[in-house]
Design goal:
Radius of gyration of chain C: 25 Å
Structural class of chain B: mainly alpha
Distance between the termini of chain B: 45 Å
Number of helices of chain C: 8
Number of domains of chain C: 2
CATH topology of the largest domain in chain B: MetI-like fold
Shape of chain B: extended
CATH class of the largest domain in chain C: Alpha Beta
Helix content of chain B: over 70%
Strand content of chain B: under 5%
Order of helices and strands of chain C: EEEHEEEHHHEHEHEEHHEEEEEEEEEE
Number of strands of chain C: 20
Number of domains of chain B: 3
Oligomer: heterotrimer
CATH topology of the largest domain in chain C: Rossmann fold
CATH architecture of the largest domain in chain C: 3-Layer(aba) Sandwich
Number of strands of chain B: 0
CATH superfamily of the largest domain in chain C: P-loop containing nucleotide triphosphate hydrolases
Strand order of the largest sheet of chain C: 6-7-8-3-9-10
Radius of gyration of chain B: 31 Å
Chains: A alpha+beta, B mainly alpha, C alpha+beta
Chain lengths: ~350, ~400, ~375
């Protein structure tokens, strides 16, 4: 019987001194299971992305990328190598020439002239672990012919959108946050209210008019059409405004006495002092922009301007057998985000936990 | 390096300062606030406010043109087409647009009402566990949060690859079933193993059963009974073949609609991708509860179970409400993951309301902007209510 | 090289008036202290002079030129803030040079001025540090240095010592004083501490509820307080006040009847002369002007409730027969104990100040 007290022990934050309590075992068991559920799918995709197209079509369930060993044939093709268990129990390597009924026609490597027949049941695949890096190189630096997926172009587009949009987001929202936190002016509260009110209207419900506006401005199929509409985010304004409120007004006054213009106060005093809040917004913005899907999907219809996310989803939608490229490119897409996360993990989690934003 | 950056920073500031300084001379320092606010307001106006108003107008127009002048006003025709159903519960009775709308709406409602409670509960349990005195909290937290960083497209590709008919999940399940069956057929060792496992629950049961008997051999008696029962049961179970499972037949998880698997996996994958965020918020809420409250409660002799109910939960409530409303708002707008994972299929089984709006306007030969806008108006009403609740709650939390 | 004139300066926030029209003339090179309790408007007045607050009415003129519409940066003033307001992300050197860079001063001139100010204020060792790495006193010097390098026409100090401990405060007081002597600039200094005001000022402006109570040299304020408020504010320990009425007015003196029935003669009188007989007054006498009655008849008796022996001085606190609290400061040490009932002489008639109880205005000496 598990009593209420025991559940209480489990839920409370302290544990007994000394050896592990049963609740600790449960805790670590739960955590480990969660970690497996989170990481195994990603790991499986990464492992799969190194497999040969043949292995992917077969859905080889083994973790490592096995590939059948082959030896070159005289006619430029290749023979696959099998392990043949002879009737006396000794196993030798043989190369396959062809199949006849239940028998296989094989020869021993080095003696291609003496082809003989053995029962197919006595043959075993001979495989070696061989990561197929071509999955990665073909769509990126390979010849244009092999580029079923224009990775470099999409990568450039995504990077451009992410970097430019983040810079603009930071500047534009910091300026607004500054105005709303450090000036008294007619209509300030009304403007703050207007900005909050836009929180009520998520972009998902104004797709059509937004599309029409963007197309009227001639921004369809332009990366700027993806960047600009979401540059002014109410969450960004308020995140920065709240932070700037904590900067003492006397600093601004000191700067004014120091003959600094208002812009200079913003640029040289406020921005550097808001760095913690700016970095949180920067991280959020990079995340939003790199992962953004819906809005690019609507604005960008020509593949030259596709972002990585669009490229991937389109590529996935096409019924082709380029799974090996899709998986490899997916890995490349999650790689930058993962690297950023590994490096800035603490920053990101505390920043997001403190602001409650995603 | 940093000196160079500082120099660039200064130079860039001075460059912009030139024109703005003369502007400030003209209009005065305090009016510069409007200058600082201008870029934001222009973008807000152009890409949030104007579209909001425009949406209402478009909802009352027909035709397929993106040029407003070429769109005829047709009154409430779009709304009529969405709402003229003999029965909203059965979208098949609706006109074409209404069918799509109501299917999407019901799917979204189902999705949100199932997904949100599950995710919040799992997030809460995880947060509670991470809030214990554990080693490597940072590591665990980071791992759980990691999927939040991934794009919905990447998440969809990952799970699509796993859930394919010949994917790893089916292979694993197949392995497990045949592995178990091999074991179940392995004879005497299986019976002994099974017997030992059955002994564990049987021992306390027999002890309890014989508790009333006042005999010096009571313990020996109850042990003997347990062993006997275990042997009997395990032999019967193993020999009858009742433990042998039928051969595993791979399920086409995202296509086979019969057991509702596609919706299950849509909910699972979405939760997988977003759980970490809410877990993080709840964990922050838990860590904000002062430790000395627990210590005071302990001094008062409060049981830990009780202090969970009387301290942790009430103090976490504001965070919980934020998490609930926020996740509900997000769930109602679900699109990316589902669209890439299932495309709304099979048939319309996982088609969400936003996908309905998107497809009405942008997919197919007939671009029904009017229908999409009218649907947006209806959905916006729903979302606005939720967002207002959220703002009120966060306001109160910030104020209190 | 600057004089400053305030002409009927007013400040209002919406419908609330906080400064009710202040006239003040400050000559070049003067060290002026604005003193008053918190909320009296002294900081607001300083900030209006600085250009950080808009002037609601009247005129502020520097060197005879009205500056009401001149932005803070262009008034040629420098200010030391209560919180120091040092830029936390800049080194001390950058803090000092930021203002000069904004004025597009040549680099070598900036370097020269920073070096000179740093030497004068003994902050050279910290030039490359950030403000966060400095002690309170060092930060204070940097804040002053930032004002010094500007070579302003007028220095403004807004309660600059209030964040320092007592010992440092005395030390910085001396340093600011010697800085004033060396530079010779006009300085305006805001404080709520009357000791700072008395020790530092050439002239003190006492403010109360947005009005100028009195403006004059420190000893003028001490010797001839114009109002009950100034009398109570300047001087430590605080002046004693006894309630009473005017009994008789003669050309050479005035007789008062105190609440306890004692009669006291003073050498001041209301302008209205005998008409004022019967008016309620307050008699003010500083604790250090009171003596113990020995041979002479006491003016008033005191039941001692507390004695404080400081060694060099002694303080007696007690209540008069009419129940008013009263303090005495005696030179040297005393044998008076708690519970003693003693007779006091309220100084000479010229040391007695009489104020109209209703208006608080002093009656001028005859």
């Amino acid at each position: 019987m598990i009593t209420g007290a025991e559940i209480g022990t489990f839920l409370s934050r302290r544990r007994g001194i000394g050896r592990l309590h049963w609740s600790d075992w449960l805790t670590y068991g739960y955590l480990l299971m969660g970690v497996l559920i989170v990481l195994l799918p990603i790991l499986w995709m990464i492992l799969s992305s190194l497999k040969s197209p043949a292995a992917l079509v077969e859905n080889d369930p083994r973790a490592l990328p096995y590939e059948q060993i082959t030896i070159p044939a005289a006619d430029g093709k290749s023979h696959t190598v099998f392990l043949w268990t002879r009737s006396d129990g000794v196993a030798v390597d043989v190369a396959l020439v062809g199949v006849r009924g239940l028998n296989a026609r094989v020869f021993e490597p080095g003696r291609p002239d003496t082809v003989f027949e053995v029962p197919r049941a006595s043959l075993q695949r001979k495989e070696t672990v061989a990561p197929r890096w071509d999955n990665y190189t073909e769509p990126t630096i390979g010849s244009t012919q092999s580029r079923t997926f224009n990775f470099l172009r999409y990568f450039w587009n995504s990077s451009f959108v992410t970097v430019v949009a983040t810079l603009l987001t930071l500047i534009v929202n910091a300026m607004a946050g500054f105005a709303l936190s450090k000036y008294r002016f007619a209509g300030r509260d009304a403007m703050a209210l207007v900005i909050i009110a836009t929180l009520l209207v998520p972009p998902t419900v104004i797709l059509v008019p937004l599309f029409i506006t963007v197309s009227k401005l001639g921004l369809l199929n332009s990366l700027w059409g993806v960047i600009i509409p979401a540059v002014a985010t109410p969450t960004g304004v308020f995140l920065l405004r709240q932070y700037m409120l904590t900067i003492p007004d006397e600093l601004l006054e000191a700067a004014r006495m120091d003959a600094a213009s208002e812009w200079k106060i913003f640029w040289r005093i406020i921005l550097p002092l808001s760095l913690p809040a700016l970095s949180v917004l920067a991280i959020l913005s990079v995340m939003w922009r790199w992962n953004d899907f819906m809005w690019p999907l609507i604005v960008l219809t020509q593949s030259e301007v596709f972002t990585l996310q669009l490229g991937l989803s389109t590529f996935k939608g096409e019924l082709n057998d380029n799974m090996h490229h899709l998986l490899a490119m997916t890995v490349l897409t999650l790689l930058p985000v993962t690297l950023v996360f590994v490096v800035l993990q603490k920053h990101i989690t505390t920043g997001i936990a403190n602001t409650g934003l995603k | 390096m940093s000196a160079a950056l500082t120099w660039i920073w200064k130079a860039l500031g001075d460059l912009i300062d030139g024109p703005l300084r003369s502007l400030q001379k003209h209009i005065g320092a305090h009016r510069m606030a409007y200058v600082f606010l201008a870029p934001n307001l222009i973008i807000f106006g152009l890409f949030s406010f104007w579209p909001m108003l425009l949406n209402f107008y478009i909802a009352f127009t027909g035709g397929q043109s993106v040029i407003l002048a070429e769109r005829p006003l047709i009154g409430v025709e779009n709304f009529r087409e969405l709402l003229a159903c003999p029965s909203y519960l059965d979208p098949r009775t609706c006109p074409v647009a209404g069918y799509s709308f109501w299917t999407g709406l019901w799917n979204t409602l189902f999705f949100a009402l199932v997904q949100v409670p599950i995710m919040v509960v799992v997030a809460l349990v995880t947060a509670l566990i991470l809030n214990r005195n554990i080693r490597g909290r940072g590591f665990w937290r980071a791992v759980y949060f990691y999927p939040v960083m991934l794009s919905p497209v990447v998440v969809a590709v990952i799970w699509d690859w796993i859930l394919k008919r010949r994917g790893i999940l089916n292979a694993l399940l197949d392995d497990m079933v045949s592995g178990w069956n091999d074991l179940a057929r392995s004879g005497v060792w299986f019976e002994i193993g099974l017997g030992l496992i059955l002994l564990l629950p049987l021992l306390p049961v027999t002890r309890a059963l014989l508790a009333r008997i006042a005999s010096p051999h009571r313990l020996r008696l109850s042990h003997g009974l347990a062993v006997g029962l275990a042997i009997l049961l395990s032999t019967w179970l193993a020999r009858s073949g009742g433990l042998v499972l039928p051969d595993y037949r791979p399920v086409n998880w995202l296509i086979d609609q019969r057991a509702g698997w596609p919706m299950f996996w849509v909910i699972f994958v979405y939760t997988w991708g977003h759980l970490g965020f809410y877990m993080l918020i709840l964990l922050a809420g838990l860590q904000a509860i002062p430790r000395d409250l627990y210590e005071a409660a302990e001094m008062d002799g409060t049981s830990r179970f009780r202090s969970f109910w009387r301290i942790t939960l009430p103090l976490l409530m504001p965070t919980m409400v934020v998490v609930l409303v926020l996740s509900l708002i997000r769930a109602f707008q679900v699109f990316d993951e589902v669209y890439v994972l299932t495309g709304g299929g099979p048939g319309q089984a996982t088609k969400m309301i936003i996908q309905h709006i998107y497809e009405s306007a942008f997919i197919g030969d007939a671009k029904r902007y009017g229908i999409a806008a009218a649907s947006s108006v209806l959905v916006a009403g729903l979302l606005m209510v939720l967002t207002l609740v959220q703002l009120l709650v966060t306001r109160r939390r910030a104020g209190g | 090289m600057a004089s400053l004139d305030l002409r009927n300066v007013k400040k209002a926030y919406g419908a609330t008036n906080v400064i009710h029209g202040i006239d003040l003339s400050i000559r070049h090179g003067e060290f002026i202290v604005f003193v008053g309790p918190s909320g009296c408007g002294k900081s607001t007045l300083l900030r209006m002079i600085a250009g950080l607050e808009v002037v609601s009415g009247g005129e502020i003129a520097i060197d005879g030129t009205a500056v009401n519409d001149v932005p803070a940066a262009e008034r040629g003033l420098a200010m030391v803030f209560q919180s120091y307001a040092l830029y936390p992300h800049m080194s001390v050197r950058q803090n000092l040079s930021f203002g000069l860079e904004n004025l597009h001063m040549p680099k070598d001139e900036i370097a020269r001025r920073v070096a000179e100010a740093a030497r004068m204020l003994r902050i050279e060792p910290y030039l490359e540090r950030r403000p966060g790495q400095l002690s309170g006193g060092q930060r204070q010097r940097v804040a002053i240095g930032r004002a010094v390098v500007r070579e302003p026409r007028i220095f403004l100090f807004d309660e600059p010592l209030s964040n320092l401990d007592a010992k440092l405060r005395v030390q910085m007081r001396v340093e600011i004083g010697s800085l004033h002597q060396r530079l010779g600039n006009t300085m305006i200094y805001v404080t709520h501490d009357q000791v700072e005001a008395m020790t530092m000022a050439d002239r003190i402006a006492v403010l109360r509820d947005g009005r100028l109570e009195q403006f004059g040299a420190p000893l003028d304020l001490y010797n001839r307080p114009a109002s009950l408020f100034v009398a109570g504010f300047i001087g430590s320990p605080r002046m004693n006040f006894l309630e009473g009425t005017i009994e008789a007015v003669t050309p050479s003196a005035m007789t008062l009847r105190l609440k306890g029935g004692e009669a006291v003669t003073v050498s001041c009188a209301p302008a209205s002369g005998a008409e004022a007989v019967g008016a309620a007054i307050k008699l003010g006498i500083r604790p250090e002007h009171v003596t113990l009655a020995r041979s002479e008849a006491p003016d008033i008796r005191l039941a001692v409730t507390l004695t404080e022996q400081l060694g060099g001085d002694s303080y007696l606190h007690g209540t008069t027969p009419s129940g008013e609290t009263f303090s005495v400061r005696l030179a040297g040490q005393t044998s008076v104990r708690r519970g003693d009932d003693i007779g006091l002489v309220l100084g000479t008639p010229t040391l007695r100040h009489v104020f109209n109880a209703a208006t608080g205005v002093v009656y001028p000496p005859i």
